[in-house]
Amino acid sequence: MKLSDIATLIGAEFSCKDIEITSMHTLKDASKSELSFVANAKYIKDIATSNAAAIICDEKTKEYIPEDCVALVVDAPYWEMAVVSAEFAPALEDLDSVKAIVGEGTQVAPTATLANGARVGKNSTIMAGAYVGSNSVIGDNTILYPNVVVYRDCKVGNECIIHAGTVIGSDGFGFASNRLGEHKKIHHIGNAIIEDDVEIGSNTSIDRAVFGSTLIKKGARIDNLIQIGHNCEIGEGSVFAAQSGLAGSSIIGRNNVFGAQSGVAGHLEIAPFNTFAARTGVTKTVKQSGKTFAGFPFMDHKSWLKIQVKLARLIK
Amino acid sequence: MKLSDIATLIGAEFSCKDIEITSMHTLKDASKSELSFVANAKYIKDIATSNAAAIICDEKTKEYIPEDCVALVVDAPYWEMAVVSAEFAPALEDLDSVKAIVGEGTQVAPTATLANGARVGKNSTIMAGAYVGSNSVIGDNTILYPNVVVYRDCKVGNECIIHAGTVIGSDGFGFASNRLGEHKKIHHIGNAIIEDDVEIGSNTSIDRAVFGSTLIKKGARIDNLIQIGHNCEIGEGSVFAAQSGLAGSSIIGRNNVFGAQSGVAGHLEIAPFNTFAARTGVTKTVKQSGKTFAGFPFMDHKSWLKIQVKLARLIK
Amino acid sequence: MKLSDIATLIGAEFSCKDIEITSMHTLKDASKSELSFVANAKYIKDIATSNAAAIICDEKTKEYIPEDCVALVVDAPYWEMAVVSAEFAPALEDLDSVKAIVGEGTQVAPTATLANGARVGKNSTIMAGAYVGSNSVIGDNTILYPNVVVYRDCKVGNECIIHAGTVIGSDGFGFASNRLGEHKKIHHIGNAIIEDDVEIGSNTSIDRAVFGSTLIKKGARIDNLIQIGHNCEIGEGSVFAAQSGLAGSSIIGRNNVFGAQSGVAGHLEIAPFNTFAARTGVTKTVKQSGKTFAGFPFMDHKSWLKIQVKLARLIK
């Protein structure tokens, strides 16, 4: 899409040399042909080192944009970013792409759907009603149980087991809001990647990234009815018990264990090798390892036990 | 169904002129050809103004029924209401209805099912394995991702996005119980209505109403794995983050925001423009606007923060 | 599978007379042709009375194995049990089994799948996209709404209603872990059994047992988005409201009522006729009946209310 057309779409002034914009990304990850945006003062620091060809910003932030980068100045950068995201969202299916390619020994049920451009490796099983979207790749020796849905452009590795009704790659919960209380969808251009040897239970939801990838690393174990928000990263061998949830953009180190009905807020980092008891609500980044936490807001497990004893005494 | 047959079915005495009963409804909403019931003393006040043709009640409540309305007196009105509800529940699909009608530009995947009597508007997409029940209506420019299920008699508006595995219009959790601990299903004769510009995440459940409609108003945003109970109403632009839940018959004003894993008890009313932090458990009606709440039982967010500080001190 | 082959597979010494091992089970339930294991000191007491033909154990536990039972001594019995479980797991579908048998008056949607060996009773309805696995049995007058998945070898009784997107018989969350943080899947050889007159909401997950059965007894009512872990037993007429969860191996007596978003830890026993308020987190076995509980960790409901009053005073 031409940068001049983007400028017109969002009502920004534009007088530079026109260029072709290939996609959108964060300031940090945008390439030289991509558009980015700054909608929050805490990201101003990322502007100077960004490779973005152009940046959507407001009047106040304009001064931070370097000379070799086009500033598209608008009143509401987050809203306008959402507007532009629709332009880069792919079609629901690549109808023109080649027919799905299926490896040797793989069984695909008659009611399963492999969209054009999908690929499935060897000796895998795609059971009844499962769906694999355009350009998504399923590895070798992997099982998609009935009615599993893998949205387009996602990846599931080798030796994975995905139980029935689980959804991989649905859009994350992202939108810009205005003063009228209206919401503008942020189209999710990223994807979700499940590495090798991951087992995911039934009726779990793993959202795709806004830009980049939601990533479930090798050997993770994810139970039933779990929410993994957009842009999360789950470390190797980490374990999530049923009905736990992860808000967006949190990074979980390797071999963490989350009990049932626990939750992690967004944009946190959890160091490796910790345990979170059932129902723990993690509200801050964890830099230590080898600890056990509990409660909401979460704390050291022993402190939580002490508080329960104190509370029990309160009523005597 | 004839009123005399209903009386026979539930063992009530009947000596009036017989009439045809077309359906069932609450005291408040029953029309002149409908049957209603009173099974809880707090609804006695609604009897006098009810248009119902007949009311199932017990011996004690009989005296409140006006002369122009038939009282069907039984020992257990709630149980007998459940018994009669089965008689007014439609078939699972209207096999005799006309074939589904699909608007111009709409794509329906070969493995999707549109039951007889279903209608889909223009330029919509019904993806693989999705199901639209009899007499349900899907608007224009709407997407049902793979394996979405819309039960019969429901409505999804224009410009809606419903992500994979979400279920709209499943029966609410309603039954009458007797002293033996047995449960009698209350058939859900109502439906679920999703207005325009609503996005609903993956694996979410929105139950149909017992009578009337469960209603999700224009511009609402509902994330993954969310429970919306029967007869709830969600105001315009309201936002529910993942794994939150709404028990039955609660009315949420416009532009409320509910954090992840929050919950709202049944039969409450929430005024517009409030925010409920993650994990908030709302236990009472909220009449104020512009507030932020947290905790369970819920309270002002600042109070909740103060309590956490006090609790932390308890163990020092 | 020959016992000598099992010994080779897990690197255990073997010098006894070889026998054919038909399956695996717990010490308590293993038959004379089955293999069992002991991986936790608390089960040593079950060894003496076990009928198992052979037991996987470690060097320390070996002395408890009686003479007429073969001890397969390994360093990590739980891990090796997981290794062997893969050998007894059946194929995803019994392709060689007879075609599914469907009773008189039963309707099966064209996009529904009945795997070979499945059986459906009379006057039942299997709606679009539903799946019934090999050797699973669905009773009479039962409804599987669209996209319900019943894994192989499970049973759903008569007069049951299973709402859309619900999964019955997915593998439980079971694996052995080693010091490298790797996880070895424990294949779930057991099944899930739903007795007569059970209604289950939409998008609920009921896991199959490791060995034996997960059991939902007659007349139970289970709402939407609920987790029932492997090997649980739910008593007659018990009620679970939306988003509640049950970890593995808990036994719930008859006519218990669990509020929304409540949870029960694993390996507990709950006596009949108790009520657990919304959000209750049950952490211990309950031997009383007729009580109401609340809070997490759970307590008498009145005590919980008192604590809330005290907490409210703390900040005044």
List the helices and strands and how they pair.
Three copies of one chain form a homotrimer.
Chain A: H1 3-10, E1 23-24, E2 34-37, E3 54-57, E4 70-73, H2 77-88, E5 101-102, E6 107-108, E7 113-114, E8 119-120, E9 125-126, E10 131-132, E11 137-138, E12 143-144, E13 149-150, E14 155-156, E15 161-162, E16 167-170, E17 175-177, E18 183-185, E19 191-194, E20 199-200, E21 205-207, E22 213-216, E23 221-222, E24 227-228, E25 233-234, E26 239-240, E27 245-246, E28 251-252, E29 257-258, E30 263-264, E31 269-270, E32 275-276, E33 281-282, E34 292-294, E35 299-300, H3 301-314
Parallel strand pairs in A: 1-2, 2-3, 3-4, 5-8, 6-9, 7-10, 8-11, 9-12, 10-13, 11-14, 12-15, 13-16, 14-19, 15-20, 16-21, 19-22, 20-23, 21-24, 22-25, 23-26, 24-27, 25-28, 26-29, 27-30, 28-31, 29-32, 30-33, 32-34
Antiparallel strand pairs in A: 17-18, 34-35
Average pLDDT taken over every residue of chain A: 97
Question: For the record, what CATH class of the largest domain in chain A applies?
Answer: Mainly Beta
Rg of chain A (CA only) = 22 Å
Q: What is the CA-CA span between the terminal residues of chain A?
A: 70 Å
State the helical fraction of chain A: 10-25%
H/I helix tally of chain A: 3
Shape of chain A: flat
The interface involving the most residues is between:
B-C, 41 and 41 residues
Identify the CATH homologous superfamily of the largest domain in chain A. Hexapeptide repeat proteins
* CATH fold-level assignment of the largest domain in chain A: UDP N-Acetylglucosamine Acyltransferase, domain 1
**Class by SSE composition of chain A:** mainly beta
**Which CATH-level-2 architecture of the largest domain in chain A?**
3 Solenoid
**What's the total number of strands of chain A?**
35
